[in-house]
Structure formats: C-alpha cells, structure tokens
Amino acid sequence: MRLAIGISLVILVVSGCMITPRVEGDTIEVDAPSSVHRAFLMEQSFFDRAYADVSGSREKSAVRGGIVPHHLLASHLIAEFFSRLELSQDPSVVVVIGPNHREIGTDGILISEAAWETPYGRLQPYTEGISSLIQRGVVQADERVFVAEHSISAEVSFIKKSFPEAQVLPIVLMSRATEADLVALASALHEVLPKDALVLASVDFAHYVSSEEADTLDAKSRETLVSFDVEGLASMAVDSPASIYVLMRYLTARNAQKPVILENSNSAKVIGDLTISEVTSYFTMYFLN
After folding, report:
1. What is the Cα–Cα distance from 155 to 19, expressed in whole angstroms?
2. CA–CA distances in Å: residue 16 to residues 23, 71, 75, 82, 282
3. Could you give the strand order of the β-sheet that contains 36-38, starting from the edge strand earlier in sequence?
4. d(CA 118, CA 23)
5. Residue whose C-alpha is closest to residue 45's, from 9, 1, 87
6. d(Cα 31, Cα 18) in Å, to the nearest integer?
C-alpha cells in the first residue's frame, strides 16, 4: 500500500476536503492579507515520501493542461502527476484553478498576487499575467481568501519541487461565477499565457459516499472527461465543475483536447479500508495537443 502520509504531522480528513491549514508550530490568521502565503504543509519529508512512491513512465507528449486532486491524502497521485511531467517539459508558468471552498471574497473569480513559501523554497507569482488579467477585469485580487484555501496551497509544493523555475498563477472560483465570467476568463488565459504554460484544475470528485458509490459516480465523470463534454460538467460529482469548465475552454483554444487518465481512486482505496462510509474520490489526468 502506497501511503506517503505523516498522520502525526497533519490531520487529513478521509471523507472530504481539508479546510484549515496546518503548519507545524504556526498559528495562521485566516483573515490576514499577505504578500507571501504558505503551502498547506511545510514538512518536506511528507512530499519527499510522496515522490519516492512514484512509479510509471515519463510523459513524452506535450501536456497543456491537467486535473489533479487537492486532498493531500492522495499525495502519491499528485506526485506521480508532476513527476511524469518534469522529465519531459519545464513550463515557465503553472496556472492552478480551484474552488473557493468557503465561498468568500470580493468577487466570483479571485486571484492572488502573492508569492508562496514551500518546503523547497519560494514559488514566485507570474506577475505579468496576473496584472493583465486584473486589468482586463476578468478577476479581482483578494489575498485574504488564499490564506486558508487549500485548493491552491496543497499544490504549490509539488509545483516548486518539480518545476523549480516556474511561476504560479492561482485562481479560485465561487459557485456564483456565471458562464459568461468563466468563458471570459478562459479566453483571457489563452491570450495572456505563454505557449509552454501548464493549466491545472485542482479538484476533488465524489464526496461523502461509499467507495462503491464513488466508483459509480466516477464512471459517469470519466465519460464526461474523456469525451470532453463541456456541457456535461454541471452534472458531475466534483467540487468545482467551474474549474474544469475554464480548463476545457482554455484547452479548446489551445487545441489540446486529447485526454489521458493516469489514475482514478478514492480515499478508502488509498488507506486500504473499503468499509469507510464516506470517501473522497480523485482523478489525475493530462490533456495533450
């Protein structure tokens, strides 16, 4: 069983998303804006173990986008996703789009201009792109939201470890963001981002169901994802269909619609206890030119 998790260092909720960041020795004020945010977990050995468990071949084709979990119970899946990429490409910018779990802030689409402290050093923001998106009016900056938003903070350490020179552009979406808002964001990303950018939807899938029920829901999600069915996203069991919607609209503009599913699992399978009554399920996925 591949379980690269330091349970004594971080509380990982088996049945759902993590809400409050845990940094050993720190107390984080969730409402305090900052020019520097911190990774959800600052324990380097946690991520080193996740990468040590990775198996599989390098991805040879150009990957322009992907889907990855933000539940750190699935750290080995996230590490595999990034590890396979780092052997064949080196994006200058990684965009992370995820849910605004607490549904707070000044706008339905929010961005951070801050840098991120990780166990592997500081991950710098893609300032040029962030400023351009703000100037176009498709996003607003609100640092308070990102202090405790793990759809972003769970990913930054993997980005810094696999792509040390990359810059990050983090975006969170509320459910109130309209389809027109999301289309405008995808279009702006296509115009602003460099050719080698990697755009990720940081999402978890089925929640609060049994492992068997999760498999059924995931089978339907798989059909939608593999067929690139943008209209079918709203009916999927996923915590942020809007994040995948923006990703798919962006990938369509970049002509990168070839899907490759790496893994599909859930928290009960990761732990090795299928009797757990409420799980979270995961997909890791690439989209190629």
Report:
1. 14
2. 19, 8, 14, 23, 11
3. 36-38, 115-118, 121-123
4. 11
5. 9
6. 17
pLDDT of residue 57: 76
Instruction: Pull the structure tokens for residue 205.
Output: 């899938």
C-alpha distance from residue 27 to each of 5, 20, 121, 176 (Å): 22, 10, 20, 31
**Does any domain span residue 9?**
no
Q: Is residue 127 part of a domain?
A: yes
The two three-digit tokens of residue 254, written as one number: 């970049």
CB 39 within 8 A of CB 157: yes
Please count the structural domains in the chain.
1
Model pLDDT, residue 34? 59
pLDDT in tens, 69-104: 999 999 999 999 999 999 889 999 999 999 999 999
CA distance 22 to 153: 11
| Domain limits for position 193 | 36-288
Residue 277 placed within a domain: yes
* Residue 222 in domain: yes
**For 31-35, 159-163, 235-239, which range has the lowest pLDDT when averaged over its residues?**
31-35
Tokens 């959800």 belong to residue: 40
Residue whose token pair is 């990775």? 54
CA dihedral 7, 11, 14, 15 (to 10 degrees): 180
**CA angle (99 as vertex; 235, 200 as ends), nearest 5:** 90
268-286 residue pLDDT tens: 999 999 999 999 999 999 9
Name the token pair of 147. Answer: 């202090």
CATH of the domain at 97: 3.40.830.10
